[in-house]
Write a structure and sequence with these properties.
heterodimer; A: alpha+beta; 2 domains; 13 helices; B: Double Stranded RNA Binding Domain
């Protein structure tokens, strides 16, 4: 049997692409983009976070286009984003004053402002709710809208960070504001040692599963054993961009939902014990990713011999597009390289 | 205006256009804004990701109005720029209605906030000695 390089297959490829529509045509029922955006919002959030692009409606469209595959949706968003120019950099987003929808601490029972559970699956029984098979979405929407309208208004107040209290006590180190221009991994290749800004941007865009797995490995002993979540907060953050002829004014452009986590660890400072924290921040409601990021942030800052403490290991293998692209390329024709391997094996056998 | 219903904003802008000549200085354009953040551990800056924005500039009688808004709603963004120009030019009669809109939006946010704050935890100590 001879192995040779081939060309062709164009018609088959075209038919294959058309066949994808067949897979999306299994029912005459459509999924409205609004329904994907509003009812599968955790999936939309995950896609936006991994794409590094906050665009809920576009994320919903991407998910519809690729049958709900997160990696394909992320690929579509990244590709689309690359066609747009970047006109603005926002002012520093004030996450300390975010409009909180959930905020908890595993470190302290009593935190300034209190613990707000918000909407969480943490306390639900994981039992299938078969009533949802016949759910009347219009009625649900109307009912919840009515419930909202009946509420009394409560003034929105900012919640101080839990870590601020520890800083006041001198248990966490206090740093001066560092206004150095952040490194942008979308415009520059990642270099090692990576700057803190490059690390945080890379982790925030990373594949949720990858960094969750790495953080899990840290908890199992491949790193600092058990950090404590000092604070986990989800809320709306207002965005402004500099504007005007001299950029001396700011204009409000909208708000985004994001999740932040600070995990606290015990650290050694000369002969004294102290605390040190790691930070995570991601688009949308994705708290496990934010916590995992905070765990890895600390591990990378600390350094060490385990894989989760190795910058290159963590930062080079967690990008959704890069990892899936590389794995995906394995299924593309490798006829020539494989033939060369085959020849080498055959030659060895013949010698024997 | 950013949070307001698009149809309402477009209606305000249409009224202005009926009475004044509006020049488009910069057509609405979709682009990106990179979101800059400050992390609380070492107080340094980093980029978390981008948002899609649309911006537009118009002028009324030589006075400019600008709008930049998240999303890709060209018509609404132009309408926002028109209202901004009209406010700057001093010919927008319904400015008070904008404040009403703002008040209603704030009220909705505060009602939502009530729902979130109902999930505030009240801890009770289970250790009787500690309670004493």
């Amino acid at each position: 049997m001879a192995y040779v390089a081939v060309s062709g297959g164009e018609e088959a490829i075209e038919e294959s692409i058309k066949l994808l529509k067949f897979y999306r045509s299994g029912t005459h029922k459509d999924i409205a983009l609004e329904a994907i955006e509003k009812k599968l919002s955790l999936l939309v959030d995950k896609v936006m976070s991994e794409a590094g692009l906050y665009a809920p409606r576009y994320a919903a469209l991407a998910l519809k286009q690729c049958e709900g595959s997160t990696e394909e949706a992320v690929f579509l968003l990244r590709a689309y984003r690359s066609t747009l120019k970047r006109s603005y950099y926002t002012n520093v987003a004030d996450t300390a004053n975010m409009r909180i929808v959930r905020r908890i601490s595993a470190a302290f029972k009593d935190i300034p402002g209190g613990q707000v559970l918000g909407a969480t699956y943490d306390y639900t029984h994981r039992l299938m709710n078969f009533r949802l098979e016949k759910e009347k979405s219009r009625e649900l929407h109307k009912k919840m809208k009515g419930k909202l309208e009946k509420q009394k208004a409560t003034e929105v107040t900012p919640f101080a960070r839990v870590s601020d209290e520890l800083k006041k006590e001198g248990l966490l180190e206090v740093y001066a504001e560092n206004n150095e221009k952040p490194y942008d991994v979308t415009e520059n290749l990642l270099e090692f040692p990576a700057s803190r800004s490059a690390k945080l941007q890379t982790l925030s865009r990373a594949d949720t599963g990858f960094i969750s797995g790495l953080a899990y490995s840290v908890l199992r002993g491949f790193g600092q054993v058990h950090p404590t979540v000092g604070e986990l907060r989800t809320g709306y953050v207002e965005l402004e961009v500099p504007y005007g002829d001299d950029c001396d004014e700011s204009i409000y452009i909208g708000e985004i939902l994001m999740t932040e986590a600070e995990s606290i660890n015990q650290a050694e400072d000369k002969d004294q014990l102290k605390l040190a924290s790691g930070y995570g921040a991601v688009f949308g409601r994705n708290e496990n990713k934010a916590i995992a990021m905070s765990v890895l942030d600390y591990e990378l800052e600390k350094g060490g011999d385990y894989p989760p403490e190795d910058e290159e290991f963590v930062l080079m293998h967690g990008d959704c597009i890069e990892m899936n692209g590389f794995i995906s390329h394995l299924k593309l024709p490798h006829y020539v390289t494989f033939q060369s391997k085959l020849d080498a094996v055959r030659k060895t056998r013949n010698k024997e | 205006m950013n949070r307001a219903d698009r149809d309402e904003i477009i209606e305000y802008a249409s009224e202005i256009q009926a009475g004044y000549q509006v020049m488009i200085v910069k057509k609405p354009e979709k682009s990106l804004a990179m979101v800059k953040m400050r992390e609380p551990v070492k107080e340094s800056l980093f980029y978390i990701g981008e948002v899609i924005v649309t911006d537009a500039i118009v002028s009324i009688g030589g006075t400019t109005g600008r709008a930049v808004a998240m999303g890709d709603d060209f018509d609404k963004t132009v309408a926002m720029a028109i209202i901004d120009a009209a406010c700057n030019y001093g010919c927008f009669q319904r400015e008070n209605e904008l404040y009403d809109l703002e008040r209603k939006q704030q009220e909705r946010i505060e009602k939502e906030n009530t729902m979130f704050m109902k999930t505030m935890v009240n801890f009770n100590s289970m250790d009787s000695e500690a309670a004493e």
